[in-house]
TrEMBL record:
Regulation acting on activity, per entry: Uridylyltransferase (UTase) activity is inhibited by glutamine, while glutamine activates uridylyl-removing (UR) activity.
Name of the molecule in the record: Bifunctional uridylyltransferase/uridylyl-removing enzyme
An annotated Gene Ontology molecular function: [protein-PII] uridylyltransferase activity
Annotated stretches, region: Uridylyltransferase: 1-379
InterPro entries in UniProt: ACT-like_dom_sf, ACT_dom, HD/PDEase_dom, HD_domain, NT_sf, PII_UdlTrfase/GS_AdlTrfase, Polymerase_NTP_transf_dom, UTase/UR
PANTHER family the UniProt entry points to: BIFUNCTIONAL URIDYLYLTRANSFERASE/URIDYLYL-REMOVING ENZYME, BIFUNCTIONAL URIDYLYLTRANSFERASE_URIDYLYL-REMOVING ENZYME
Swiss-Prot/TrEMBL cofactor(s): Mg(2+)
UniProt source species: Bosea rubneri
Length: 935
């Protein structure tokens, strides 16, 4: 074997240009037979693949062309496969006079068959033979596959005869689809052409409807698995709705039905016009650009565009911030607009295939059909509309030109008569958007129609989504157009802004129809008494319309709403209601989740904002719909309970207010009610127990829980215990209650939160009460982790046991927390500036500490520990998490029960709490490890 420096230096370009010649050049100086050549070949091909990847990545960075990158990677893989085939057939297993059985074609199938590969894609190969595989064929296949495996490639392969291919393609849609885009890489071209001929004649011919139906059903299954909305904020670029697989499916169906080999041929076939072809090509290139960068950045076949990746991909592509939007938000808007384009193209293809597959009727049937059509036209109420196959359509392509109001009227009729719109008509809407001028936007009839659509009791969500997908909604309301496909780069919002707004209308319509009584009993019961129903719909539709602007979106949104309400034809009173709702649409949620609802000042302050019972009703319903439309799992029964409590307390104030005498009377009423429940106790014991609680307890805690507490304390004392716990599940509110009895201690809440953190409990709220004899009765509400009560109770009992051990001093809480360390998720992805607000106005008796910042495991434990070290008593704690942002509120006093009023003391508190979020603190936490749960 010659010295290493005598080995021929083969470049990727040589392998691409003539694989056989390149392999022959490599084989000539090799000594040591096939094994040496195989080793040399693998080394050369490894270098070639690395060169190919580097070249493709450089091409992607320079040209920003994802499709060119994917084709470059595919060409490099072609060179590798063809080189291995040449080595196998010419050097390892040469045949001088091959028989008919010693013919073979190496065929790329699947994604590789399209001539495109992502950096981490599988390589799908078909080894095609004229008949049954021979010993020679088996040897050649192995000679190609083993080096590919040595190169650490993910190879999917099949070995079939032509007859096998035809038979299996008939019975298996996956194989039929793979063969649809098959491409010869190396070997016998005549053999490959024969397979293609028979595939077209014996498999494809006459089966387009069945293939289309199967592919669309397959798509639905795939989309359900990846996420049904194309506006999920962490989309799957390959398999998600509006992703590359949708484009593939679209072209598979078109290719199968129209027998074309290139998307450009679809214009000549009449399926696309030139504009739509350009959209197809632009979407394909963009999605490939994103996918290739995802694979290059992660070094693997990562298909989910996670928050972690979004920043990196946006930077790699070259997005910059603009108009108050971060680079990542501009990038994701481009992504979602592309996904929308893919959806539009899919609708066009489906409509064309539907029309293609309909057979013409006989003359008499057509005549009868035309007579029926005229009757249906009259039934639709406007001569410019008709029905095509039970779908709403325009009578001709000039219907929108004759009267641009027909653009809105189309959707009004669809909403009123519950009709699907014919895809050709939806396509015509998109092509007619230039007709949406300032004149149409201010047309009284057009705005009346839009308001009817928005406030309809018949599926307004579905109709608004159709309008949005056609582009009409954003064109008719340009401010809405600004938030179309706009994502908010955080973990809280699951959808783009436009999708969130449309979904919120759908939820409101369900409440309006009484369909959500079990889930939202209060909203359901008060809806019928709301006088400003129309204002509520408009306010909800516009509440986030100013997102993405540099100013507060509530303030900017109210200003936009004032202008739009006049345009829509709302009265001055309705307009003022809409403006107020948008300005205050976050207030009720904030107060409910982060304020002490048992503090009279909280209710009085909120009542001063709301002012009227009508506004209270409107704000409650709007808040429910808004929270629920944020995304799956964001709404839960606990939030519902908080909102109901705030509503009822505020309703009482608005009905006349609470005086000190009324509060005393309410306490006495509650004590009397509990006394009646404890009729089995001795009178002296009953009176002694009633005297143990302060007024705040009686006003905050409902009667059922008061009775549970009484019997819990009684049983603990009977057992001689001053430290005890009790657990109970609440499936409706989605929480588990942990009741804790213990001697009062400044670090009590820190111990409890630490025990919860160590045991995996996610605290959502805490009620803290001190009895007159020095005990603490705390109720900790932990988010539910299991559906089954028995599973949830076992978990809660483990948490309770950990709390008891910690309170008794059997273990150190720091050690308990350290046992369950885990790195914080997405720690480098999001940035939330920490903030500490110290307020002495929000409560009459307490100083309110509102602490917000980037959430992480164990944060609540760290905060309560810091507060206890500051010698502060925590009277109540309210814990809220909005995605990656934590907002924790503590009602505190000093050890004498007084507010914290001195500036110096407040400065110390602020510095200590901000230090919890500091880099040094995080570094120390990392060195010690971190708790695995929110608590």
């Amino acid at each position: 074997m010659p010295p290493a420096n005598d080995k021929p230096a083969l470049k990727l370009a040589e392998l691409i240009e003539d694989p056989a010649a390149a392999v022959a050049k490599l084989a000539r100086p090799t000594r040591g037979g096939s094994d040496a050549l195989r080793a040399e070949l693998v080394a050369v091909l490894r270098d070639a693949l690395e060169d190919g990847r580097a070249s493709a990545k450089d091409l992607l960075a320079r040209t920003r062309n994802g499709l060119a990158c994917a084709k470059r990677l595919s060409a490099a893989m072609d060179a590798v496969v063809a080189s291995l085939h040449a080595a196998a057939t010419r050097h390892f297993y040469p045949v001088q006079n091959p028989s008919s059985g010693e013919r073979m074609a190496v065929v790329a199938v699947g994604g590789y068959g399209r001539g495109t590969l992502a950096p981490g894609s599988d390589v799908d190969l078909l080894f095609l033979f004229p008949d049954k595989q021979t010993a020679w064929g088996e040897s050649v296949v192995e000679a190609v596959l083993y080096p590919l495996w040595d190169l650490k490639l993910k190879v999917g392969h099949s070995v079939r005869s032509i007859e096998d291919c035809i038979r299996e393609a008939r019975g298996d849609m996956t194989i039929r689809t793979a063969l649809l885009e098959s491409r010869l890489v190396a070997g016998d071209a005549t053999l490959f052409k024969e397979m293609q001929r028979r595939y077209g004649a014996e498999v494809v011919e006459g089966t387009a409807p069945a293939f289309t139906e199967a592919k669309l059903a397959e798509r639905e299954t795939r989309v359900m698995r990846a996420g049904t909305s194309r506006y999920l904020v962490e989309p799957n670029v390959k398999d998600g709705k509006g992703g590359l697989r949708d484009l593939n499916t679209l072209f598979w169906i078109a290719k199968y039905a129209y027998r074309v080999d290139d998307p450009a041929d679809l214009v000549e076939a009449g399926l696309f016009d030139a504009r739509e072809l350009a959209i197809f090509q632009r979407a394909e290139e963009f999605l490939w650009r994103v996918r290739c960068w995802m694979h290059f950045i992660t070094g693997r076949a990562e298909e989910r565009l996670s928050f972690d990746l979004q920043r990196q991909v946006a930077a790699a592509i070259g997005y910059a911030g603009r108009n108050g939007q971060a680079p990542v938000e501009r990038f994701m808007k481009a992504y979602f607009l592309t996904a929308k384009d893919v959806g539009d193209l899919t609708a066009i293809v489906c409509a064309a295939l539907e029309a293609r597959q309909q057979k013409p009727r006989a003359t008499l049937t057509r005549l009868l059909g035309s007579l029926t059509k005229r009757k249906r036209v009259r039934a639709l109420g406007h001569p410019d509309f008709t029905l095509k196959g039970q779908r709403l359509a325009v009578v001709d392509d000039d219907a929108f030109k004759r009267d641009p109001v027909n653009l809105l009227r189309l959707y009004e009729i669809a909403s009123r008569d519950d009709l699907a719109i014919h895809p050709d008509t939806s396509r015509l809407v998109t092509q007619s958007l230039r007709l949406v001028t300032a004149q149409l936007r201010h047309d009284r009839e057009a705005n009346r129609i839009f308001l009817e659509i928005l406030t309809s009791r018949r599926s307004p969500e579905a109709v608004l989504r159709r309008m949005n997908e056609s582009g009409l909604l954003g064109r008719f309301i340009p401010d809405f157009g600004r938030v179309v496909a706009m994502m908010q780069f955080n973990m809280y919002h699951h959808y783009t802004v436009d999708e969130h707004l449309i979904r919120s209308i759908g939820i409101l319509a369900e409440i309006d129809a009484g369909a959500l009584e079990a889930e939202h009993p209060l909203a359901n019961s008060i809806f019928a008494s709301i006088a400003n129903r129309r204002a509520l719909y408009v306010a909800l539709f516009l509440h986030d319309i100013a997102k993405g602007r540099p100013e507060d979106h509530s303030v900017a949104g109210a200003r936009i709403a004032r202008k739009l309400c006049r345009r829509f034809g709302l009265s001055e009173a309705q307009t003022e209601t809409v403006v107020w709702l948008i300005e205050n649409h976050l207030v009720m949620s904030t107060v409910a989740q982060s304020r002490d609802l048992g503090d009279p000042k909280t209710i009085e302050s909120f009542a001063a904002i709301v002012q009227t019972l009508e506004r209270l009703k409107l704000l409650l319903v709007l808040t429910v719909a808004d929270i629920k439309a944020v995304g799956p799992g964001v709404w839960n029964g606990w939030k519902g309970q908080l909102l109901r409590t705030l509503y009822y307390e505020t309703e009482m104030v608005l009905a006349g207010g609470h005086s000190a005498i009324e509060r005393k009377a309410r306490v006495e009423l509650k004590q009397d009610a509990l006394a009646a429940r404890l009729s089995d106790w001795q009178p002296a014991a009953r009176e002694a127990y009633l005297a143990r609680h302060y007024p705040a307890y009686w006003l905050k805690v409902e009667l059922d829980r008061q009775e549970q507490h009484a019997r819990f304390l009684h049983a603990a004392e009977a057992a001689g215990r001053t430290t005890a716990t009790k657990v109970e599940t609440d499936s409706f509110r989605g929480v588990t209650e942990l009741t804790i009895l213990a001697p009062d201690h400044p670090r009590l809440l820190a111990i409890v939160t630490g025990a919860c953190a160590a045991a995996g409990g996610n605290i959502v709220d805490a009620q803290i009460f001190t009895t007159s004899d020095g005990l603490v009765l705390d109720t900790i509400f932990v988010s539910r982790a299991f559906e089954r009560d028995d599973d949830e109770l076992r978990r809660a009992e483990r948490i309770a046991a950990a709390i008891e051990r910690a309170l008794k001093g059997e273990i150190k809480i720091a050690d308990l927390v350290a046992q369950r360390r885990a790195p914080p998720p997405r720690g480098q992805t999001f940035q939330v500036a920490p903030e500490v607000i110290i307020d002495n106005v929000l409560s009459t008796r307490h100083t309110v500490l509102e602490v917000s910042g980037l959430d992480r495991p164990g944060l609540l434990y760290d905060l309560t520990t810091a507060i206890s070290k500051l010698n502060l008593n925590i009277a109540s704690a309210h814990i809220a998490t909005f995605g990656e942002k934590a907002v924790d509120v503590f009602y505190v006093t000093d050890l004498t029960g007084a507010k914290i009023t001195t500036t110096a003391r407040q400065l110390i508190i602020r510095q200590a709490l901000l230090a919890v979020f500091s880099f040094e603190h995080d570094k120390a936490q990392t060195a010690r490890g971190k708790a695995p749960a929110r608590a």
